[in-house]
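Q: Structure tokens for this one, please.
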Amino acid sequence: MNREKRVFINMGTISGFLMLLCKVGLLVLVLAEASSATLSPTGVNYEVEALVAIKSDLIDPHNVLENWDSNSVDPCSWRMVTCTPDGYVSALGLPSQSLSGILSPAIGNLSNLQSVLLQNNAISGPIPASIGNLEKLQTLDLSNNIFIGGIPDSLGNLKNLNYLRLNNNSLTGSCPETLSSVEGLTLVDLSFNNLSGSLPKVSARTFKIVGNPLICGLKAANNCSAVLPEPLSFPPDALNDSGTQRHHLTVVFAASFGAAFAVIIIIGLLVWLRYRHNQQIFFDVNDQYDPEVCLGHLKRYTFKELRTATDHFNSKNILGRGGFGIVFKGCLNDGTLVAVKRLKDYNTAGGEIQFQTEVEMISLAVHRNLLRLCGFCSTENERLLVYPYMPNGSVASRLRDHIHGRPAIDWARRKRIALGTARGLVYLHEQCDPKIIHRDVKAANILLDEDFEAVVGDFGLAKLLDHRESHVTTAVRGTVGHIAPEYLSTGQSSEKTDVFGFGILLLELITGQKALDFGRVANQKGVMLDWVKKLHQEGKLNLMVDKDLKGNFDRIELEEMVQVALLCTQFNPLHRPKMSEVLKMLEGDGLAEKWEASQRVETPRFRSCEHPHQRYSDFIDESSLVVEAMELSGPR
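A: Here is the predicted structure, written as tokens:
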């Protein structure tokens, strides 16, 4: 009996061991298949081959594709390339990189691409028909280039396409009829080309065709005005908010069901709501949303998902606090690190649809020097935004840091941060549609990626929270020491308001100090701008440079950066340069002429009591201002 039992146990053990071996073998096969899934017959990663082919056909004056190495086996670490968790290339983002040349047909081999952003370059030649092979593509933006030829019929194969922007090119021919079969389109912009012929019935909420003379002649101009977008909303099967529930219940109760059954439903619903209220402080009406539902290329997260990611918004995970809310470090289920901004002052008057519209507009601003919005969460009580985590924090937080006894941000990095920030602001002001005014440009809102590249954060949030205004005139938002005089006086902001803030940012990079803390740290009276002006007039520039640099800076670049900062911070906004002009001056083009011209202009007078030596500190009356400091100085 015991022997039989032993044999049974041993046979069971052997059987289990064999099953385990089978599973391990199967796992090895799966892993082997996955690891070779992107290999071409020659043993080379076919996505690497495709990206290298794209690089070879482009002219890259700034070497932004420098680390696209044909000998690499993993393109996921390359700049401007985003991959899925399982290692496939999912996004190609190269907007505003001064690229020219042509777009290689090899792009059609990146079969997992979901987003292609090549806008604001000088790429020419035809649009490759092979783009129609990208079945997963959701966003295609080739706007503001020099593409010629027709729009490929193959774009009709992109059944998941949501955004199509081909505007401001030199495309000819007719709009392909095949686009009418793409049902999920939200935006199609074909404006300002040379298209002709009839237009298909495109299902997009917004269809722009203005600026095509052969379609929109002078007599027919009124018929070619841009179609205004409908309010963005989720499809009925995805949208299941409490209002919809009440409507459905009303229909059910009004039907032929008996009164007793209706009472049971009501009681059950009340009990369930009470239970839910006891289970969580915030009733998340969006817990029933499919977490994979996206708004454009934005992911919609549930409140529960973000609460779990931040360990119930644990104070230990706080990265920063500011006027817009608190930022928490979070870790999603797939291990991705994110920064979750929990808005504290969202405008409830606009409602859910308005909030979705605003966050979608923010998400469309894509540039290597702008913080990308990944997703959002919107419930009855909460508004949250989800961004990538920035491992090197903000410029403000790293200016005082040291690595192996040396400043974490040396002079070369400070110059590069200035250039990167300028490029991001140029995009917001002059290349983004519609343009975005930041309203709080400062070192604490300039973040640093793993390579210490500048990433402008918090753009678009002022508009998001103040969307009831028809123009940009609201209660003052910003930080003392950074706010332009006209904004303090009138509450009206413009691109020139951001230019002023950028000038103060340059002074922060030069001095290593926060403008807000300048008086206390440097034991000086007044504010940083007045102090810098005085030292500049006295020819004592060396005294303003961050002592942590220990003299390791370029004297000529210092003089140039101070001049640019002073041009940006002129009291009269009309005298300040545009950000595109600021960028050119930082790159060494036109500064001498601008500076000489500024010295011939008498200091402007905003008020009758102002004199030629008006100080910035005279504009600041802290007791009469309600200023929201937006300190987001931790890693983001």
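A few notes: The mean pLDDT is 75. The chain has four domains: 46-224, 242-279, 294-388, 397-624.
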